[in-house]
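Most newcomers find our protein records easier to grasp once they have seen one. The structure tokens are whole numbers drawn from a learned vocabulary of backbone shapes. The record below serves as our worked example for the rest of this section.
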Amino acid sequence: MQMEDLNKSYHESKSFFDNNLTTHFPDTLGKSIVTYTDCISPEAGSLGLMVIDSLNKEKLVQIQKNYELTCLSKYKASDSCLLIVDRFLSRKKYYNVEHSEYDKKLLDRPCYSGKYPVPNFWHNEFTTDKTECKLPSDFILYVIDAKQGKYLKNDLLTNGWFMPSQWKNGYSKGVAISQRRNVIIYWLEIW
């Protein structure tokens, strides 16, 4: 796909969401972009946008310093208790999501108190089963904003069976950064 076509598709995907939910994303995709994915189908569990970018070390350090100062919350990918949006999705179970087969104890653990949701990074080139969020342990997750409630029309929202009751619907936006890989992942998840 040509960069012009890729950017056109990217801008269409971004425009699906309210502008204040995508302000942290790049304005355009450059040649350093590893990939971008969108999901605007409620049947998938959540709606969202994700951009993976490879940056030079200096730029990544500058961006990370900014998020250190301005983020709502910060987590390590290796943390053992993360509030993960649609935590049960995996490459094996993407088309076969049945909530009756999952451990309901993972939906409302006491350690989630005061935490903000982060994505399940189950579908990118960095995906690993060694962490709860499915990113390698060298990633740091910066939640820029997250709120409970309905941020899309009802027919686009999920029933929230995969989240604690207080987070039945909501959104999370942020970035995941790996200095080791010189990678930043921008995310927006709405469910």
Q: What stands out?
A: Strands lie at 33-39, 47-54, 73-76, 140-148, 170-178, 183-190. Residues 3-190 form one domain.
